[in-house]
Design a protein that fits this description.
alpha/beta; TIM Barrel; 9-stranded parallel beta sheet; binds dihydropyrimidine-2,4(1H,3H)-dione; binds zinc ion
């Protein structure tokens, strides 16, 4: 029997097991896992390397519309390239519905942006910002049938947020059709009231962003989102949980038996509120929503990761450059005074999510490599309808691998990354363990510093329905 590719002598790690074996690939799929496989057109020697499922990056903002004058720094080409170089083989950015726009039209626009441009496979979550009767009754059910089986709602930001009643409508569609709703949980009224108050007091520096988006703002909305989910009796996933107080709401809900999923992000595990105090306007580089918290908060999130409160860790890559007239510091180009309220919120991080997490979890021994795989690949594939095609190494799965050198030491420098942004908030951070090779459906797309893939190799992935425990029970 001959193979297109054999990955030899590596240590395979999935979300459940770690073992030595070779992997045989044919037609882009894993067709054999055994000792001493022979006879292939291409052989990769993975001696000394871990062979992991490719990362699944299921929270990133690519090519989204400008926020005022500030433009997204990544296209599908640059965003997917950066993801590939960071060991990811699948990403799921958002198709963002503008207020007044048809949801299906928004999907068409994002298809056109991604088609032919992505280095890695991709799907889309939808952002529902206009929950009209037509969207609720016709467009959302249609979109779910077309493979868009998860969507995000915002409880803040006036141009995208929907109110609690509309969130209930969206949750009801999700329950009936088998989709998963992701919630951005921060209280809009509190943010704008606090923002106005701080402005009146002349408190306009970047650090005030964290004061306007304080713990209580996130905690209250998280509890409310959980309540809405409980009322409709359908699961939700709280995205980018930053505050330990919000995390405690999730843990409380889970202890009550509610089906609440949660995500946290590297910015809440590695960045901190004190970063806003950097000299000049540099604190703006760290403004994202919700914001990084004080250092003591980090330890509580790490503990919650260990205790399975969180299902997934994603980058929430939201790339706005720092310099230039379309960057976070655009005011400078207009001779204006900077103000934290006018800084586009978002940090880049799609390429370093996996190395940061690998370093802390595996190299520093906080958790085992199987848990690393679960949090960064397998769980997302399961939650978002991609498993077992993605998120594991098994017979019949796509041959998507990230080969990790656990001994490789790297200092993160933006000049060595591959996104379209002009900075990394993790500049200077040292990590041990690096994804030295990325394989997409049997083809190497990143090899030790060299990009060997090309834009357009990534395929669109229609996704399966979310399988709720409720539905499983009903089917029994
Ligand atoms: N948070 C960000 O920081 N940016 C984009 C959207 C979001 O929820
Ligand atoms: Zn969000
Ligand atoms: Zn986001």
């Amino acid at each position: 029997m001959s193979y297109d590719l054999i990955v030899k002598n590596g240590t395979i790690a999935t979300a459940s097991d770690t073992y030595r074996a070779d992997i045989g690939v044919r037609g882009g799929k894993v067709v054999a896992i055994a000792e001493n496989l022979e006879d292939a057109r291409e052989t990769i020697d993975a001696t000394g390397l871990f062979v992991l499922p490719g990362g699944v990056e299921a929270h990133c903002h690519i090519n989204e519309p400008p926020i005022g004058k500030v433009e997204s720094a990544d296209t599908f080409e640059t965003g997917s390239r950066s993801a590939a170089c960071g060991g990811n083989t699948t990403f799921v950015p958002f198709a963002n519905q503008a207020r007044g726009q048809s949801l299906l039209e928004a999907i068409e626009i994002y298809h056109a942006l991604a088609n032919g441009n992505s280095y890695i496979d991709y799907g889309f979550h939808l952002i529902v910002s206009d929950a009209t009767p037509d969207v609720i009754n016709r467009e959302l059910p249609q979109a779910i049938k077309d493979g868009f089986t998860s969507f995000k709602v915002f409880m803040c930001y006036s141009d995208v947020m929907i109110d609690d009643r509309q969130i209930l409508d969206v949750l009801q569609v999700a329950r009936e059709q088998g989709a998963l709703v992701m919630v951005h949980a921060e209280n809009d009224h509190c943010i704008s009231w606090l923002g106005n108050r701080l402005t009146e007091l002349g408190e306009t520096e970047p650090k005030n962003y964290a004061r306007a988006h304080g713990h209580v703002v996130e905690r209250e909305a998280t509890h409310r989102a959980i309540s809405l989910s409980e009322i409709v009796d359908t699961p939700i996933l709280i995205v980018h949980v930053s505050s330990a107080e919000a995390m405690e709401q999730v843990r409380w809900a889970q202890s009550k038996g509610l089906n609440i999923h949660a995500e946290t992000c590297p910015q809440y595990l590695f960045l901190k509120e004190e970063d806003f105090d950097r000299p000049g306007w540099e604190g703006a580089k760290f403004i994202c929503s919700p914001p990084p918290r004080e250092e003591s908060n980090q330890g509580k999130l790490w503990q919650a990761l260990k205790n399975n409160v969180f299902d997934v860790v994603h980058s929430d890559h939201c790339p706005y450059s720092y310099e230039g007239p379309a960057g976070k510091k655009y005011h400078e180009h207009e001779g204006g005074h900077p103000h934290f309220c006018h800084v586009a919120p978002g940090v880049p991080g799609i390429e370093v999510r996996l190395p940061l997490m690998f370093n802390e979890m595996v190299s520093n021994g906080r958790m085992d490599i199987n848990k690393f795989v679960a949090l960064t690949s397998t769980n997302a594939a399961k939650l978002y309808g991609l498993y077992p095609q993605k998120g594991t190494i098994a017979i019949g799965s796509d041959a998507d691998f990230a080969l990790w050198d656990p001994a490789r030491e790297v200092e993160i420098r933006h000049e060595n990354l591959h996104d379209g942004c002009d900075y990394s908030p993790y500049e200077g951070t040292r990590v041990r363990g690096w994804p030295v090779r990325t394989v997409l459906r049997g083809r190497t797309i990143w090899n030790d510093g060299e990009i060997t893939g090309s834009p357009g190799e990534g395929n669109f992935l229609p996704r399966k329905l979310y399988q709720t425990p409720l539905k499983t029970k009903a089917a029994e």
